[in-house]
From TrEMBL:
Signal peptide stretch: 1-24
Assigned keywords, A-Z: Signal
Coiled-coil portions: none
Entry superkingdom: Bacteria
One Pfam match: DUF2147
Protein name stated in the entry: DUF2147 domain-containing protein
Every DUF2147 domain range: 31-126
Length: 128
């Protein structure tokens, strides 16, 4: 079974799915987001011309995910409120493609395999 980036208890989720707030900017995505399960937090920040996400807190620090581990890479704008890039899943050690979408106070990440045929998403809420 293929897993998408950032979806286990570690709180990895590949990128964002969905639509939302028109005109959202990268600035609105920057900051700390907590996974809907409360298992992890990721800090999104600028990395060159893109956005990257790094694990900033884990409920269970003994799992495969590690503090300071970058799990979202090279997220670039791909439409209103949506970014595309790559996500790493510490649970299986694989990197996936995906999208990230901002809709008001909710961020959804989705990691995909097989050209987007199989995707898995995770919802995040802003913590700062």
């Amino acid at each position: 079974m293929a897993r998408t980036a950032a979806f286990g208890l570690a709180g990895m989720a590949a990128l964002f799915l969905g639509a939302g707030l028109a005109g959202a900017s990268a600035q609105e995505v920057l900051g700390v987001w907590e996974r809907d399960t409360g298992a992890s937090r990721v800090r999104f920040g600028k990395c060159g011309e893109a956005i990257c996400g790094t694990i900033s807190w884990l409920k269970d620090p003994n799992g495969p995910a590690k503090l300071g581990q970058r799990i979202f890479f090279d997220m670039k704008p791909s439409g209103a409120n949506t970014w595309k890039g790559s996500a790493f899943n510490p649970e299986d050690g694989k990197t996936y493609s995906g999208t990230m979408t901002l809709s008001g106070p909710t961020l959804t990440t989705a990691g995909c395999v097989l050209g987007g045929l199989i995707c898995r998403s995770v919802t995040w809420k802003r913590t700062n």
